[in-house]
Amino acid sequence: MPRLNPDNLQRALDLIALYPQPRSALIPILHILQEQDGYLSEDGMNHVGELVGLEAVEVRGTASFYDMFHFEPVGRYLIAVCTNIACMLQGAYRLLEHAEERLGVAPGGTTADGMFTLEDAECLALCGNAPCLTVNWRFFGDVDPEGFDALTDDLRNGRLDDEVPPHGTLIRVRRSVGLAAAGPTDEATPQSAEVGADVDAGPAPHRSTGPAVELSTHRTTTATNVVDAAHLEGRQ
Amino acid sequence: MSEDTRNEVPVRLVRRPLVTESAVGTPPPAPAASGETVNITIDGRSVEAKAGQWIIDAADEAGVYIPRFCYHPRMKPVGMCRMCLVEVEGPRGPTLMPACYNPVADGMTIHTKSDKAVKAQEGVLEFLLVNHPLDCPVCDKGGECPLQDQTLAYGPGESRFVEEKRHWEKPIPISDLVYLDRERCIQCGRCVRFADEVAGDPFIDFAERGDRTEVAIFAGQPYGSNFSGNVVQICPVGALTAKPYRFKARPWDLQQVESTCTTCAVGCRSAVQASSNEVTRLIGVDSDPVNWGWLCDKGRFAFPAAAGSTRLSVPLVREGNELVEATWGAALARAAEGLARARRSGGIGVIGGARLPNEDAYVWSKTARMVFGTDSVDAQLGDGVPAETILGLPRATIDEAARAALVITVAPDIKEELPVLYLRLRHAVREQGTQLVELTPAPTGLTPYAAETAFYRPGELAALAAAVASSEPVTGDVAGVAGATIEAVRAHVARAAEVGSPSGPPVVVVLGRPSLAESEAQVAAAAHVLAGLPGVKFLSALRRGNIHGALDFGLSPGVLPGRVGLDAGREWFEYQWGAPLPAERGFDTAAMLNESSRGRMGALVLVGADPLTDFPDSNLALRGLLGARFVVAVDTHLNASVRHADVVLPASAWAERRGTFTNVEGRITWLSQLVVEHSVSWPDWMIASELAERMGVNLAFTCLEDIWAEIERVSPLHHGVHYELLSGIRARDGVVVPADAATIAQTVTSRPLDPMADPGIASAELHRIAPSALLVTSVEMTPEPDSIDPSDHVAYPEPPPSGASGEGVPAVPRPLGAPPVPAPSGAAPLAQGLRLVTRRTMWDGGTQVQAAAQLAGLAPDPAVRVNPAVLAEMGTAEGEMVVLRSSRGKLTVPAAADASLPAGTAVLTWNLPGGSAGDLVDSAAVATTVTIEAHGGGS
Predict the structure, then answer these.
(1) Which residues pair with B604 in a beta bridge?
(2) B883's torsion region: left (phi>0), alpha (psi -120 to 50) or beta?
(3) Of B23, B24, B206, which has the smallest distance from its Cβ to A61's Cβ?
(4) Phi, psi angle pair for A118, to nearest 5°
(5) Is residue A14 less than 8 Å (CB to CB) from chain B?
(6) What average pLDDT does the structure give for chain B?
(7) Which residues of B touch A64 (CB under 8 A)?
(8) Whole-number Å distance between alpha carbons of B252 and B379
(9) Is A57 in contact with B221 (Cβ distance < 8 A)?
(10) For the whole model, what pTM was predicted?
C-alpha cells in the first residue's frame, strides 16, 4: 500500500530530473518516502526502485547502510537519546534508562499506543547542551529525567505540535534536495525563509524548531538554527 | 584440493577484458590497452609485465602467488577483502597496497613475502575468521575451500578473538536452487558483483553494515537469475551452496572430467564431477573464446535428468496399444524389418539428431542415405533456420561478435535460449563499446542493452531487413517499425563500417528464429539481404544441443557431411561411401510430417526428437505421427512422441559416452565419459550401425576413432582436425572448422585451471576419460533369427580403400556457398487479429527440465502478454482468463499486460506445462494470427 503519494511522486520525479543518473536521487527520495510513512516500507522501496531503475534489494541494500532509515513502522514521535561521550558524562544512560522505564520499551521499541519510538543514538552534535535528544529530528538539550517526563507529556497532549511535526525528516535534507527552494524568501532572515519554505514544501505540517524556545523544563537550543541558516546561505 | 596448492602457483593466461568506465561508481584505473611492457621487480626478481596490468595478474604470470578472495579474473576488482596486500616501494617508503587494485608501473618494486606483507596477510586472515564459524567438517566447501586453504598457507595459526561470533539463521534459501549461510560469508562481494556486473540480474545485494553486513535478497523476490549457479561456483567459502549438491559428496571423493555442456548450442566448457558413478555437479571451466568460466542454470543443474523417472532403460516394442520391454536383438530385428519394408514402399524419414555427438550424427547421416535410401533427414524440427542459410553464410566466432562495432540480432531471446552467449554479448556492449541493434517482434533479455530495437510486426521480418539494408529513403513505417527507427539502425550500420573492428568483421548478425510462429522463410530472406551489408559475418543462434554438429554432418535435407550440397558432393560421397545417394533432395521435418499425415511415408525414425512438443505446429505433428505407418524412436527419455513409436531404442546420454561437439561457431570440442551407460543403453552410432547391419550394410565402425578417421577422410570441412588433438588435455578451446593446420596448432594451448577463481575444480590434470573398465558395454546380445528377406539386403560395392588417390578419384567437393535467393514468400493476406509471437524460456515443459526433479517446478505458469490497450478494449483485467483462437485451435490462458509490446502483437511462451502455443501455430502461414476474447464470453 504505502507507495509514494501523488505529491511525493512528483517530488521524486523532480529530484530524478536533477541528476544525470536516476539512481543518484535514491537517498533524497528515500527521505521523502520516510517522511511520508515514517519508515521505508517494502512497497515503498519497490516503488523507489522502479523510479530510479534499481532492483528493490539494491534500494534496501543502500538504505540499510544508514541508521536513520527505518524499516519497521515507528511511533508518532521518534525519540533518539544521544549516548556518546559528552552526553554520557552528563548522565545520558541515566536519561535513557529513565526513558525506557517511562515508556516501557527498550531502545528500538515502540510504545503500544504507537506514540513513541525510543532509540539510542550516536552523537547528535549538541554536546554543549548535553545530555540531549531529538524528537523527530528536532533538538532538545539539557534534558534531565523530569524534563523528559514533561517533554513526553507535552508531546502526548499536543502542546508541542507547533514545534515538532508528527514524523518527518531532517529539514536540512529537504533544503539540500531543493524542495525548500520556493517560497517568500525575499526577507531573507533565516527564520522567515525556513518557515516559508516549509509551508510551501508540502502538506505535511512541518515547522521549523524556530527561534530558541525556552520551555519550562526543557530547552531547545539555537544551535540548529545556526546550522540551518548557514546552510541556507551557502545555497544562495 | 591438496596441500600442494599452497605452494603450487596457479598460473593462468590473463586476458582481462578491457575495463572501462561503467555507468556507476568510480572505476578502478583502466589497464592500458597498448601492448607495452614495463619492468617490475617482484620479490627481488626482475620481470616484465604488461603496462596497466594489475599487480596480482603480473605476479601470477611471473609465478608468484599472492593470496586472494574477492579478486576474480573475470570481474572488475574491488579491493574488498584486503587479502592480497603486498608491500610496494614508493616515494614515501614501502606501502601496503592491494595487489588486485593497483596497476603495475615501470620500475615498481613489490614484496609479497616481506615481514610487513606477511604480517598484513596474517592480520587480514585473522579478521576474516573473526566471525567465520569454522564448521568445516559439516561444510560442503570443506576440502576445496579457498578460505580453508589460504588460512593454512597464509594464516597466523591462531586467533586472539575470544568473543561470541555473530549468529544468523543457518542456510536460508535465496532461490529455488541456492542456499545462503550468512555465518560463513566473508563479504568478499563476488556473488553480488557477479549478479550485477556479469549477469545483470542484481537480485542480491549487501544489506546493513559493519558486523551486521549480510548478503540479502528483497522480501518476496528470490534470486531468480538464469545464472544463479555461478555465484555458488565462485563463492570462496561455503556461504552459497547449490541445493542439488548439498551434502551429496566430499570433494576428495569426486571423479572429474573436463567436457562440454550440450544443453544448448553455445558449448560451454565444464568440469563434470561424479561420485559413485553418479554425476553430482558441474563447474564452469574458463574457456577464453567461449564461456569465460560461466554456466547457465539449465546447463549446470539439468544433469539429474539422465537419471529421471522417464529415462529409457531397455528397448521397447509395440504390442497392440502397449510398449513392452524387449531384448536389443528383438527390438533391432523388429525395427530393421519395418524399415526395410518402408524403404520399399513410401520411404523413410529421419527426424532429429541435435542430441547426437558429431560422430553419431555422421553415422546416422550416412546410414540414412546409404542404408535407408533417403535424403529426408532433418535435425531441425521446423523451429530453426534453413540449413543452407546457416551453413552457407560467412560464420563469425563469439569473440568476433564481441569485438565487432555492431551486432545485429535477428534471434529469439538469447538470455533464455543461449544464456552464456547473452553474457558475452552483454559484456561486449557494456565494456567493449559494441553497439547492439535488435530486430525482434517482442522485447528480449538484451533489449535493455540495445542501442536500437526495432519491434517489427511478426511475418514482416524480411521487409524490415530489406529496409535496413537498402539506401532508399524510408517513407512511413515498414513492418510496423517507424521510419526514424530504421534510419537510426542504418546510421549504426554506417558507423560500424567507418569504425570497423580491431580484428574480424565490423558487423556480426546473430541469426536465429525470432518467433516460432513466424515462417523460417522470413529469416532466410532477411539473412539474404543482411548478407549484403559490407563485411558482415553471421553467428548462429540455433539453440538445440549439437544442432551445428548435426548440420555439419549432413542431418539436413540436401546437405551432406562437411557442409556440402547433395548434388555438389554426389560424386565424391558415392565414391567414398561406395553407394548411390538418393536422387533427389528429401523433405524437411514439416514436409515429412505432412506426407506422413497423408499416409504417404513408409516410416519415421525419431532420433532424439519430440515433434509433439518441439515442432511449432503441434496439430501437424500429431497428425504426422498418427499417420505414420511405422515409427522407430531412438531416445534417452520416454517423451510424448516416443510413446507413439513401434520400436523404442534406448540411447546413452551425455557423460555416459565419449564424442565431440560442435557449437554455434563451428567449434569442435571434446565430450568426455564419466559414468557408465545407463542400464543397457547404447551410443546412437552403435544403434545406427546395428540397424544398418541388419538391413544388409556393414558400416564397419567399431569405435569412435574409426568414425572420425572416416570423417577426416571424406569431410572437406574436417581435414586435418585430428582426433588425438581434440581429445588432448590441452584442447580446452577446441578447433573452429574449417581451419588450416597453423590455426589448429595455435588454438591448442595449455592453461591450467585457477582453483581460487573457481574453487572445486580439481587443479591436477583432469582425467580425460573414465577408466577403461567402464568402457565395456554391459549388454548380452540375444541372437535373433534374421527376419529380413535376403533379397532386401542392399547390394553395395565395397568402399574404396581409405586414402585412395589418383585415377578415378573425384575432386573434393566445395562447401556450400551463399544461400540461394529465397523464393518470395506467399503473399496470402494474413487473417485479422493479433500476430502471435512465441519463443522459448529457460525453464519449460521440455524433457530435460521436466525429468530433473528439482527443476520441474521452475517453469512459469503460461500467460499471454499483450499491450494493456488490448485488455482495456476487451474490458479484461490482468490475470483474467482469455481465449486465443487461431486457424489451428484454441488456448485458454491468463492475460498479462506488457506496455512494451506493440498493440498488434501477442506473446506466448513456448511449451509451458499447462498451455502450449503449439496448439495455435500454423506452420504453413508466414505468421500465425490469433483472436482474443474474454473467457466465458461467447464460447
Answers:
(1) B349, B631
(2) beta
(3) B206
(4) -105, 135
(5) no
(6) 89
(7) 207-209
(8) 41
(9) yes
(10) 0.89
Q: Which fold has domain B387-540?
A: Dimethylsulfoxide Reductase; domain 2 (3.40.228)
Q: Which domains does chain A have, with CATH numbers?
A: 6-71+172-199 (1.10.10.1590), 77-156 (3.40.30.10)
pLDDT at residue B376 in the model: 97
Asked if the model's pLDDT at residue B544 lies above 70, the reply is: yes
Q: pLDDT tens across B11-61, in order?
A: 333 333 333 333 333 444 445 445 789 999 999 999 999 999 999 999 999
| Chain A, nearest residue to B201 by Cα | A55
B245/B257 Cα distance (integer angstroms): 17
- Assigned fold of B834-934: Barwin-like endoglucanases (2.40.40)
Nearest to A195 by CA among A219, A185, A165: A185
Q: Could you tell me which residues come within 8 angstroms of residue B75 by beta carbon, excluding any fewer than 6 positions away?
A: B190, B193, B194, B197, B198
- Minimum CA–CA partner of B207 in chain A: A61
User: Are B218 and A57 an interchain contact pair (Cβ–Cβ within 8 Å)?
Assistant: yes
Architecture of the structural domain at B37-128 = Roll (3.10)
Whether residue B217 and residue A55 make contact (CB cut-off 8 A), yes or no, is no
Rounded CA gap, B693 and B233, in Å?
46
A213: number of Cβ within 10 Å: 16
d(CA A141, CA A158): 20
pLDDT at A232 over 50: no
Residues of A in contact with B209 (CB under 8 A): 64-65
CA distance A104 to chain B (A): 27
The residue in chain A having the minimum alpha-carbon distance to the alpha carbon of residue B214 is A61
Q: Test B208 with A65 for CB contact under 8 angstroms.
A: yes
| Contact list, A65 vs chain B (CB under 8 Å) | 208-209
Round to whole Å and give the CA distance between B359 and B747.
22
Contact criterion met (CB below 8 Å) for B86 and B94: no
Asked casually if ipTM beats, i.e. exceeds, 0.85, the reply is yes
Q: Is B843 exposed, middle or buried (0-12, 13-18, 19+ CB in 10 A)?
A: buried
Bridge partner residues of A13 (DSSP): none
Q: How far is B208 from chain A (nearest CA, A)?
A: 5
User: What are the sequence ranges of the domains in chain B?
Assistant: 37-128, 316-351+359-383+547-751, 387-540, 834-934
Q: In A, which residues are within 8 Å of B207 by CB distance?
A: 57, 60-61, 64
Q: Which residues of A touch B219 (CB under 8 A)?
A: 42
pLDDT at B937: 54
CB contact under 8 A, B204 and A21: no
B897: distance to nearest CA of chain A, Å?
Answer: 17
Quick one: pLDDT at residue B344? 94
Angstrom distances, CA of residue B853 to CA of B43, B613, B859: 53, 19, 12
With b meaning 16 or more CB within 10 Å and e meaning fewer, what string describes B544-568?
bbbbbbbbbbbbbbbbbbbbbbbee
* Mean of per-residue pLDDT scores for chain A: 77
> Which of B18-27, B34-43, B209-218, B259-268 is least confident?
B18-27
Strand (E) or helix (H) holding B368: helix B358-370
Closest chain A C-alpha to B129 CA, distance in angstroms: 23
Confidence of residue B791 (pLDDT cuts 50, 70, 90): low
- Chain B's closest residue to A46, CA to CA, is B218
> What is the CATH class of B316-351+359-383+547-751?
alpha beta
3-class DSSP assignment, residue A176: helix
Q: The C-alpha cell of B540 is what?
A: 548462429
Give the least confident one: B551-560, B561-570, B585-594, B830-839: B830-839
b/e per residue B474-505 (b: at least 16 CB within 10 A) = beebbbbbeeebbeebbebbeebbeeebeebb
